[in-house]
Amino acid sequence: MRLLSRKATCNTHGQDSSYFLGWQEYEKNPYDEIQNPTGIIQMGLAENQLSFDLLESWLADNPDAAGFKKDGQSIFRELALFQDYHGLAAFKKALVEFMAEIRGNKVTFDQNKIVLTAGATSANETLMFCLAEPGEAFLLPTPYYPGFDRDLKWRTGVEIVPIQCTSSNGFQITAPALEEAFQEAQKRNLRVKGVLVTNPSNPLGTTMTRNELNLLLSFITEKGIHLISDEIYSGTVFSSPGFVSIMEALKDRKCENSQVWNRVHIVYSLSKDLGLPGFRVGAIYSNDDMVVSAATKMSSFGLVSSQTQYLLSALLSDKKFTRNYISENQKRLKQRKKLLVKGLEKAGISCLKSNAGLFCWVNMKLLLSSNTFEAEMELWKKIVHEVKLNISPGSSCHCTEPGWFRVCFANMSEETLSLAIQRLNSFVKSMNNQSHHQIKKSSRRKSLTKWVFRLSFDHDHREPEER
Amino acid sequence: MVFKLNNHLLSRIASSNGHGEDSPYFDGWKAYDSNPHHLTENPNGVIQMGLAENQLCYDLIQEWLKKNPKASICTSEGLNEFREIAIFQDYHGLQEFRNAVANFMTKVRGNNNITFDPDRIVMSGGATGAHETIAFCLADPGEAFLVPTPYYPGFDRDLRWRTGVKLIPVDCDSSNNFKVTREALENAYEMAQLDDVKVKGLLITNPSNPLGTILDRETLRSIVSFINERNIHLVCDEIYAATVFSQPDFISIAEIIQDDIECNRDLVHIVYSLSKDMGFPGFRVGIIYSYNDAVMSCARKMSSFGLVSTQTQYLIASMLSDNEFVEKFIRENKRRLAARYRVFTYGLGQVGIKCLKTSNAGLFCWMDLSGLLKEKTLKAEMELWQVIIHEVKLNVSPGCSFHCLEPGWFRVCFANMDDQTMQVALSRIRTFVNNKVDNKKPKKNLRWQGSLKLINSPRIYDDFINSPHSPMPQSPLVRART
To answer: Would you say which domain of life the source belongs to (chain A) (predicted)?
Structure first.
């Protein structure tokens, strides 16, 4: 008799993916400015380390929140006992207000419709348990966050069917792509329960256009299915065209209290915007009472520590702090991204034009030996082992085109980022030298093709938005 | 069960009542919540005795916190660590956290040459998350775990709801103080075979909730031999390990398998938590400790769905690596629980109410009220229970919510209140019993709200859950400041 469950013995947890293998390599030889200056620089982890000083100074000024105290009185006991899955009311209030503030207060959220979970990881899994049966499917635009393969599918038995997006239009979602994905699911005998999008996108670093949002809403209305909008990066939008939340799009379509209103759910977390992934603060927001109710009960399996809820409720209730934090954080992210983009440009490498996130979606097609995923893997291994940068290959994000890589820029010091850029620069130069040697040996026609190939990819940027 | 509701298209799991909260047992919670007792502000309110919390040692913890400001990453002393800790999301958990938990687990079990390996410590969202994760690792939908009755009602949700795993009760009764017999185990296993249900494991809670008893060496050995023979898993929930307040000493499964070279260690797994021993249910510190490498590895990946906040990991690491504090805490905790138990059972004894005599652990008494039943039926138990809630104004838990086959038993928690409140509870019980004895005729004005659910079948898999996570809009816990 099989001793363990199927879930335990399969590899649907997805950790054999290259996304995680890169991490392992990094762990073996991590860069340290002083102790290991030739080690691998971690650029595969989308963390926000740019604004801790703001948090630290708030903490220094607010000793009560830190020390289990309220108005000087110890509330340790109350917090230690508090295991109510409805969550600390003060925290939920502060959280929904923070979410509204990030959206320019164009939308407001009801604290009774938010469910706290152990990180967005748990939020996404919980929504799958609530909305789909084993064997049913959700459609996801590619490229997407590799963790979804585990979070959405592993223990739930739900399938993911990709909505293929390409660089021809900056990876935007199109109506034909949506319909094609739906048909693909039908072909595979999978009942589609909904669409899940990440907005702003990971790994693209772009916000969705109003066009796309409306397209999605029309699509889910027509098909009678759900829409999950993972807005975990909503606070990282640092330049125009700005962030349009799915809630705003719904409002603009006058969808309040319509059927589609109840089929739209938001996932949020403080891991990226506040840079607190260790605290495991995630949330599900839904207009559907039944979803809120079921998800609340399920949150028993992954509640947020009351100690953390209390601390953050104090932090996020300080509106002066949140206002300043949001704008300062965005400023710093913008500046960092510029640094990376300019550095890559100097090396002749372009990025997808982006306005959000903690990473750039980098086009390294011209470094591929051939337009294949094998070549992408080859290149990736070189970059990890020789250039000593852990970046994430597009294939791990299910990208349809080889040659794209996600490169994080907010999880290191400026010096380290400059060093990483330098290393990449040297690598590209050496690659070019190699190919020059090859060009000398091959025919002129071949070299012409290569230059034409390179030029065409400089046009990989998004079309101007309507705003 | 409704699958579709106005095109909402929710899953079966979400639309069913597998979470168990539609049970009539929440009448007790509702009664408490609408009229919670307070010594000065609401002396006639309902006293909460249905929640197994340990509130006896917060003074010790607060004293420690005062002396150790560095344990919090948010105080000026600890602020230096803030960013490292806030950023750390590795599902292995902080090394110092695992070291400290392993240290605590060892000390709680009296250092009997048992050691716990910090590298085997896997986090989970409380014991709730641990149980669900273990079920996901060990069993496929439709497969089953055996569980001795009476058992914690939360298991019905934790092990079954999203996993599709079944629970099969192993009958125990008072004739031998609810001991788990080899015969009962074999019977349950064979019944499963006849029903064509594949049994994947046995789940025991030791010390027991709701019995408050520990398993003796002979029973433990018998259990180990049973699971080895049948080649099924053994999951030991040792969440109450540090609440063993009098002899005999607690024997952990870790001790048993250490001495038993024939036991297949790949079958043994421990679930632990700090919610009961330390009184930290709000901090969600659950632990899976498996001797099986594949299970450990799988559970660790699954822990992504319920990691412990690093802020909390850091605090716990600091606290539980302070050996002087840990030893003092364990000692004092036992002493205070023992004292409470003594006072409470003595008070009950004064009106002829007996508790399970073999109990020496836990945060509750397993009280025998069968003498007060009109007849020895579960219906009578429910009636008595309604009276206790609404007239005596105590929220206690009826035995049938724990799947107990014998009517008349009630679990009564005593560690979640101060001494005065406990005296009030005792005096109410005394009054009630004395009145019942004096008045032969049944009390009038028996009010009960909600439907009286009749339990006809002794096999009650599906219905009753008494969740510690109150479905009430405002948690009664926050208001209970005694």
So the answer is: Eukaryota
